[in-house]
Amino acid sequence: MAVWDDLVGQDQVTAQLVDASRDADRFVTAAAEGSAEEITASKMTHAWLFTGPPGSGRSTAARAFAASLQCVSPDRKLGGAPGCGFCDGCHTTTVGTHADVEIVRTDLLSIGVKETRDLVRRAQLSPAGGRWQVIVLEDADRLTEGAGNVLLKAIEEPAPRTVWLLCAPSLEDVLPTIRSRCRLLTLRTPPVDAVADVLVRRDGIEPELAAQSARATQGHIGRARRLATDERARARRAAVLKLPMRVDDVGGCLKAAQELLDAAGEDAKQVAEEVDAKETEELRAALGAAAGTGGRLPRGTAGAMKELQDRQKRRSTRTQRDSLDLALIDLMSFYRDVLALQLGSRVALANADVRAAVERIASGTKPEQTLRRIESVIACRQALDRNVAPLLAVESMTMALRAG
Ligand SMILES: [Zn+2]
């Protein structure tokens, strides 16, 4: 399966990337034969910015492009598009072991100057495989301003074989100086049918479940896959969709708010249990602590341990926030369905699996009320973005969701 097959509903972007990878391949071949051409004049360039709504497949597109740049399939000499999916270059890039492809994904809220300097240093290396040194920065929107300036210098004066692939939700999420030096690609939210199709084809999910998951997440591939494969995610969504029926009185509102936060806290705890202990143990070993719990750290290494603990704490905050945001997105989607019914719209409901609940709320209230409720969910997400205390923000939302 060619690396491009993972890009769902993005024909235009795919065509552009295939063209670029052909030119990139021509450049590498010409250079190997001693007749290098100018790369900037072609469809290939050193810095790319992939934007698109969450779930549209920004990082999938960037990785597919990275793989195609490393593709060494003999077919590409016969007119086939680079990115065959089978050769060593494609395969190692896809599984994350290619020596010349660095994929940076962060579970933190921001990427700082120090990490970015390390990356820039890495980017200056000549590609070991003789093709391209590719750096995929999946969360370019999380660069601090300082980090952005470090990156800017690297993009302004790129090493001849270095390619930066930056991903961010929108253009506004990246420093204007950086985006003006990148070639821009905009992905769209893929159609629900295309998402369901890829879940069946690639993940072997049963068609009905695939269709339902794709519809419930409205074209967000990653969330659809998680919903289709993870029992816990389905239980979480089911609980969130019951919330509109439970906010009849103040007590119910406060209880619902607390439960939303508890669920987010549980998610963070689960992630912490999975990774934190292992990371801490690895660092202890690296720092030369004696094995076992009684092992003391050598002098002067406490700083590194403290740094790891801070990192873990920031990750926990981020996980909680992401989990809560997903719940709010589900809630908003429920009220959108309510509004659709109230306005007599014929679009398919995203939450058709809880149609009875949607109908009950729709018939008992007015569209104006539903609009106000949707606004209160939006306001809650914005408040959380501004670091308002989560319980406060969520309580004020559940109170606003109350009937009346
Ligand atoms: Zn290949």
Provide a descriptive summary of the structure in words.
By secondary structure, the chain is of the alpha/beta class. It has two domains: 3-186, Rossmann fold (3-Layer(aba) Sandwich); 250-286 and 313-403, Zinc Finger, Delta Prime, domain 3 (Up-down Bundle), CATH 1.20.272. 57% of the residues lie in helices and 6% in strands. It has a five-stranded parallel sheet, covered by helices on one side. Helix 8 (207-216) crosses helix 9 (221-229). It is globular and about 75 Å long. The termini are far apart. The structure holds zinc ion (ZN).
Tags for this model:
binds zinc ion; globular; 15 helices; alpha/beta; 6% strand; 5-stranded parallel beta sheet; 404 residues; Rossmann fold
Compact description:
The protein is of the alpha/beta class and 404 residues long.
Gross geometry: globular
CATH superfamily of the largest domain: P-loop containing nucleotide triphosphate hydrolases
**Which ligands occur here?**
zinc ion
* Assigned CATH class of the largest domain: Alpha Beta
